[in-house]
Write a structure and sequence with these properties.
- The protein has helices spanning 2-6, 10-15, 17-38, 47-71, 165-180, 228-243, 262-282, 300-305, 314-330, 350-355, 370-385, and strands at 78-83, 88-99, 106-111, 120-124, 127-129, 147-160, 193-197, 199-205, 218-224, 252-259, 289-296, 338-342, 362-367, 391-395.
- The strands form three sheets. A six-stranded parallel sheet has the order 12-11-10-9-13-14, sandwiched between helices. A five-stranded antiparallel sheet has the order 5-6-2-1-7, sandwiched between helices. It has a three-stranded antiparallel sheet with strand order 4-3-8.
- With 400 residues, it is an alpha/beta fold.
- The longest helix has 25 residues, at 47-71.
- The protein contains eleven helices and 14 strands.
- 35% of the residues are buried.
């Protein structure tokens, strides 16, 4: 039991997740077996507790398998797109579900390739595509949480930052498929590699949120790195609310995003943010102003620890210019929307962003490293102490 606690600490779960998972399951089973023999001298007096533990574990496995079977199209492949410049993988998975996805959900993804198809990895849902005929329930609160009497087909989207183990194998699989079959695997003009992959998803898990951000006059997202998936999920939900054309209070969305390089911003903006921007201006009668403050650094550690770094390279400067150009092109018809791009030596000024609201009712959503979350929390406390009573803070989980 002591070993299970020691090997469950966050650094091991972060850097050696698959080792943690295998070790945890193996030693949990060995622990039950050891306890069984340990209490055998009591002639079965305590066996009921052991069988209860075994029953709970078996029921959990059975429920997870049932969810996988009910959610996935076993004969249909998913699409994975790897962007070498941004070092990101966009994963689109077709599923069937009775429930409309919600921000804050995460799914376990199984890569059905190689010798470890049983291994899974949790990823936060970033976006989804729902059939037009699946409309939300009509009620007084204009809820965007829809139900249906039979499952509907939809696509779940995830943004993955490849590192080692599971995510590294996913990236390597896409590259291997591209190298093996140049004709059937697409490569875009931007250098992105697209490949069909066999994956299964299990979920949703977590505590999906029903925060009604449209009830606030403004929303401020404080995001670090891959925490952008949380903001994207909220954007998707807000777009559904806007399409219902009910009167809403929301007038302004501010996204403050600190990323390692502009390439990731370009990837996400091209696939997700830009689409949201265009849709909410073309399909919604009362468009919401959207402002992006982009902070680019060579290293997130440099950004948060010292606040300084070496001068940006020429290529990084070009990427920053491309980032601003991308937003400018997307918002050419919307003079009320804007973006600001800051170099690596700049630091996100959370308190300044909050003070700029002038005390109006505002929701603050933060998803980033612990230092960023602490800074945001402190800024909120400071603003409340100054009399800004209309602020609501929603911290989101960044690390597993």
């Amino acid at each position: 039991m002591s070993l299970l606690c020691v090997f469950s600490i966050y650094p091991i779960r972060k850097h050696l997740y698959e080792f943690f998972l295998l070790f945890h399951i193996t030693f949990a089973v060995l622990l039950l077996i050891a306890i069984f023999y340990h209490v055998s001298i009591f002639d079965g007096e305590y066996n009921g507790y052991i069988w209860a533990c075994a029953a709970v574990w078996s029921l959990d496995r059975l429920c997870r398998i049932s969810r996988i079977v009910s959610l996935n199209f076993l004969g249909r492949k998913s699409t994975a797109t790897f962007n070498p410049d941004a070092n990101t993988v966009s994963l689109d998975v077709p599923v069937r579900s009775w429930l409309r996805p919600k921000p804050g959900s995460y799914y376990f993804v199984y890569l059905v390739h190689g010798i470890k198809p049983w291994e899974s990895h949790p990823f936060t849902l970033s976006s989804w595509t729902i059939p037009s005929e699946w409309e939300p329930e009509a009620d007084s609160s204009h809820s965007t949480i829809g139900r249906t009497t039979k499952p509907k087909n939809l696509n779940l989207s995830f943004i993955v930052r490849p590192h080692h183990s599971f995510t590294g194998r996913l990236r390597n699989l896409i590259i291997a498929n591209h190298n093996r079959d140049q004709e059937n695997v697409a490569t875009s003009s931007t250098g992105r590699i697209q490949s069909p992959v066999r994956v299964l998803v299990e979920g949703p898990y977590g505590s999906p949120h029903t925060h009604r951000l449209d009830r606030y006059k403004s929303v401020l997202f404080i995001i670090g790195g891959s925490g952008i998936t949380v903001a994207l999920a909220y954007f998707r939900t807000l777009l559904d609310v806007l399409k219902q054309k009910h009167p809403i209070r929301l007038q302004q969305i501010n996204l403050v995003w600190a990323v390692r390089d502009a390439a990731m911003f370009l990837e996400v903006f091209g696939d997700e943010l830009g689409a949201f921007w265009r849709q909410q201006n073309s399909e919604v009668s009362s468009a919401v102003k959207l402002q992006i403050d982009l902070y680019i650094s060579d290293s997130a550690a440099t950004l948060h620890q010292s606040g300084t770094s070496s001068p940006p390279e020429v290529g990084e400067v070009e990427e920053e210019k491309r980032a601003e150009a991308a937003v400018t092109a997307a918002t050419a018809s919307d003079s009320s929307s804007s973006t600001r791009t800051s170099s690596a030596h700049s630091r996100t000024s959370t308190e300044a962003s909050i003070n700029a609201t002038n005390g109006q009712k505002m929701a603050i959503v933060c998803c980033g490293p612990s230092r960023m979350a602490d800074d945001t929390r402190a800024a909120v406390v400071s603003a409340l102490a100054k009399g800004y009573e209309g602020i609501t803070f929603y911290p989101e989980q960044f690390n597993w």
